[in-house]
Amino acid sequence: MKMALRSSPLPLEIIHLIHEQLGMQNDLKTLSSCSLVCQSWVEVSRSQLFYSMVLDIGPLAARGGIVSSSKRVEFLRGNPHLSRRLRHLTIITSTYSPPSRQASLICDLLPLLPRLHHLSFDLNFDLWVYPPASKAIVATLRHGAIDVLDLTNVRFMQYDDLFSLLDATKIKSLKLDSISFVIDRIPPNGKSPPSTTRYCGDVTKAVTLLQSQYSRR
User: Considering the entire predicted model, what is its pTM?
Assistant: First the structure.
């Protein structure tokens, strides 16, 4: 009769490195097996199994739409042992759902993820120009610990809206892709507005880049 292994002979640091590599390779089958080896492996293996999530808030009604996303949020609310393991969240929005409902869902979700450190937004341009939605999301982010932020397809009303978002987070790394500003639609003195912002790297350098880019208007 085989005895269950109660503890691991390997140092905990090595165990973490092994599981991190498996997580990077998205080897879910091996991670699942690791969670059954011994008690000391359970937490670290499960933390890699539930590391990342993509929430598509506004797909077509045929795919469930915002109702399906709401159910996922309620699932995480009812299973805090899973939600607190999430580190990376991608949120995709759509013009098919009202901005107020999408913003409400985002604000319901973010507080459920206390260990989230990497947040990706693909907002399909329209959500952030709805002030109640953008203000609610910024207020929610102030209570989090996000240090990596990716923004794709985001249209801000004005430049200060972007800086307010950066100020609301404790980010160390920033990625901007296809960012635009409503205020640039009417360029002063017939000058062309700045090109779409694309940036990836240090936050301080990004802010300096943005300030210099838009001060040339």
Answer: 0.67
Convert the chain into a string of H (helix), E (strand) and C (coil). Answer: CCCCCCCCCCCHHHHHHHHHHHHHCCCHHHHHHHCCCCHHHHHHHHHHHCCEEEEECCCCHHHCHHHHHHHHHHHHHHCHHHHCCCCEEEEECCCCCCHHHHHHHHHHHHHHCCCCCEEEEECCCCHHHCHHHHHHHHHHHCCCCCCEEEEECCEECCHHHHHHHHHHCCCCEEEEEEEEEHHHHCCHHHCCCCCCEEEEEEHHHHHHHHHHHHCCC
CATH class of 51-184+194-214: alpha beta
> What is the domain partition of the chain in residue ranges?
51-184+194-214
Q: What is the pLDDT of residues 144-160, one digit of tens each?
A: 888 888 888 888 887 88
pLDDT tens track for 111-135:
898 888 899 988 766 677 777 777 7
